[in-house]
Design goal:
Blueprint lengths: L3 E3 H7 L3 E8 L4 H4 L8 E10 L5 E14 L6 E15 L2 H5 L6 E4 L4 E3 H12 L13 H9 L11 H10 L1
The structure holds zinc ion (ZN).
């Protein structure tokens, strides 16, 4: 598994399809802070090549099953992620502007890119803003508890962020 990639390894990988079998989710610290559980893996497949304009690009896919927090009962709910990746490796922001719209720019610092960080950001961007269990899939005890901590007027759904804000204000 390659976590760290620089322009030289990129040159060397250009002629082959490059497979990252998996990255354990617990290696992504920023992501795990958001998730309900750090169990599971991200499966990644990328093909590297140079396009006709001499751009370094990579296309492929990423799949992962992640545990996010249900906003109704505050317990873990499984969410399947399946992303198509189209990446363009660039040296700076100016260079990124020349990239066709289909590609997400990945800026290489001094010609290097930490692939794991890039993958982590792709996953974070793809997470649902709010997640709920399927109908009746919530833990009823947890729902009762979650709603009993809510001071909002009748009819309003509990908002965990307002509860968090109240806690922080104390
Ligand atoms: Zn739920």
């Amino acid at each position: 598994m390659i976590h760290y990639l620089n322009i030289l390894t990129l040159e060397n990988t250009l002629t082959m399809s490059w497979r990252l079998k998996y990255v354990p989710l617990n290696e992504f610290k920023e992501l795990c802070a958001i998730l309900a559980s750090n169990e599971g893996n991200a499966f990644i497949h990328l093909d590297f090549r140079v396009d006709e304009d001499r751009r370094y690009i990579a296309t492929g896919s990423l799949t992962a099953q992640v545990q996010v927090v249900c906003q109704r009962c505050m317990e873990a709910v499984t969410h399947d992620l399946a992303l198509d990746l189209s990446l363009g490796f660039v040296y700076d922001e100016d260079h990124a502007k020349n990239l066709p719209k289909d590609y997400d720019p990945v800026v290489m610092t001094d010609g290097d890119v930490i692939l794991a960080d890039m993958v982590e950001q792709e996953i974070i961007l793809a997470l649902p803003i709010v997640a709920y269990h399927e109908e009746s899939g919530c833990n009823p005890t947890a729902v009762k508890y979650a709603s009993s901590t809510d001071d909002a007027p009748d009819g309003e759904k509990p908002n965990p962020f307002s509860i968090l804000a109240q806690l922080k204000a104390k």
